[in-house]
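Problem 3 from the worked examples.
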Amino acid sequence: MIGPSSDVAGIVAHLETLRSEENVAGMARFGIATGTALGISNPDLQKIARLVKRDHGRALDLWRTGVREARMLAIYTADPAALTPAQARGWSEDFASWEIVDTAADLFTETPFWQELIAEFARDEREFVRRTAFAMIAGAAVHRKTEPDETFITYLPLIEAHSADPRNFVKKAVNWALRNIGKRSRICHRPAFALSEKLAASVDKTARWIGKDAVRELSSEKVLARLKG
């Protein structure tokens, strides 16, 4: 039985007993990198994370195993208050799957240096590192509720600057960030919608897709009704 005192070897051994090749195949169909995957679902990993509890040092060691499930557990059990910029950058060096990126992005946005990481990761030419920046913006727009709206409005030029990046995992994250800013509040909606319309009229194919998709959601009755409420 695993618990708070479990070490990395014990946790990985437990994960191995839960291996499912059928689930691995299913993950691959969703574009998840499965080279080191054991096929354990994220809800099941979250249950394990609750059993072993938060332990930042152990989380760093779990990450070093390279096993997909161990890395997800590393993210779930790391301490954002203890995570350093160097550690976050170190993890980003290994990013090779949208699932890991998006989960880590939520952890990174809980740190006091989250904006520093966004700026740095957006400049990075690697597809999954750049995705991290925009996944962080998308997540922070939802979860950092006490952050001033202006913080997110200032990210709109960054979104525009990278709206022509045609790589699948970047363009989807840029679009996601734009939509989430627009849905955050009435204050954010107006400039985000204006940028969406601008991109929708772009001659660039990727920017046009990002803009049209964002216009579709940000002009929907559901979103407008929620913002009015």
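Problem 4, a separate protein:
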Amino acid sequence: MSSLDHVDLELLATLADDHRATVVALADRLGLSRNTVQARMARLERAGVFLSFERAIASTALGFPLEAFINVQLRQVDIPRITEELADIPEVVQAHGLSGQVDLLVRVACRDARHLFDTDARLLAIDGVERTETHLVMREVIPYRLRPLMDLAATTA
């Protein structure tokens, strides 16, 4: 999706304020018809505007209270295969390709320190992974958010 108009931005802002709002409630708050809101939501979803709803589930609720970020250095030519193998490890909840000295930033969730040690060993066992460096998450200080960006986009749109 190339750009969002002011109605899209208002719809997304309303969803950011109340992510459980029904289409009817959104239509009422925005002064739009239910069909308009439903059509825009469908278009936004098709365009990939919405991320996975899994993001809203805490790993601690599933019995995995220990989170860490693992810096992974690897052979560049093996990134596609290594990424596929990482996706097969259930403890890997997210991974990002980076520029610079670290190739991948991998977020993992584990039961305890031993589980984290074993998970890191599984990453190191992947052919092409050369080195890892683990950083424990002590607490999240700024949760994932886009509302400030939506506000900025609305002022520049």
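Solution to problem 4. The CA atoms of residues 27 and 34 lie 5 Å apart. Helices lie at 6-17, 23-30, 34-46, 79-87, 113-124, 147-156.
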